[in-house]
Amino acid sequence: MSEHLGFFASLHWHFEDSRRLQLGESRFLSIIDGGKALRVGVRKYCGDASPILGCQLHKRRNICDHFAEEDQPGWERKLANAYDLRSYREAKAALLRIHHELSHVNPSAARSLEEGMEETLTLHRLQVPIELWKTLRSTNVIESAFSIVRVVCRNVKRWRPGNQIERWVGSGLLMAEKQFRRMDGYRALPGLVALLDPERGRSKVSSRVA
After folding, report:
1. How open is the CA angle 172-38-87, to the nearest 5 degrees?
2. Mean pLDDT by 10 residues, the chain (210 residues)
C-alpha cells in the first residue's frame, strides 16, 4: 500500500507543476477503472473536454462479482457480447436490456452496471478505430507496467523525504520499459488523435505530406 500512496503523491506533485506538464488545451483520452478519485483527478488536470473511458473489463468483473461463481460465465458472455457491438446505439440498447434484466434478479449488479455505464461506451461514442479497441477497452496496457513497479518497490520499508519516491517509481518504470512492445492497432493512432484534437490531427498529416 505504501508504494501506491507514494506513487500517487509523486503524480500529484508533477500535475500541480503545470509549467512542467504543459497540458495546454490538448484533449486526452483517459482510461480509468471507474474509481471516483481518478475521475476527479482527470477532470482537474485534463479538463472537462477530455473524454473518459471506463475500463470495460473492470465493469464486467464488478457486475459478475455480485453473482455466485456458477452464474458468472453467463452474465460475462452477455456483457461481453453487448460491448462487442460496434454501434453506440446498439451497444447501449443491449446494456440497457441487461440492466433491466438485472434489476429483477440482482439489484446490486444492476446498480453496478448503471454507474459509469456511459463512460464504458466512450469507444463507441467517439467511433474510435476498431483496430484500437482491444488495447483501449481496458486498463491492462498500463497495469502490466505498474505491476513491475510494485515488484521493484515491494521491499521498500521507508519512504524518505525528497525525491526517493520518484527515484523508485522511475526505476520501476525503466525496468518495465524494457518489456514494452508496440500496442495492437498502433497504426490507427493518428485516427484517434484526429478524433480527440482535429487541429493537431491535421497538422500531423500535413507534416507527413510535406
Report:
1. 105
2. 44 50 67 84 83 94 96 97 96 98 97 95 93 90 83 78 76 86 88 79 48
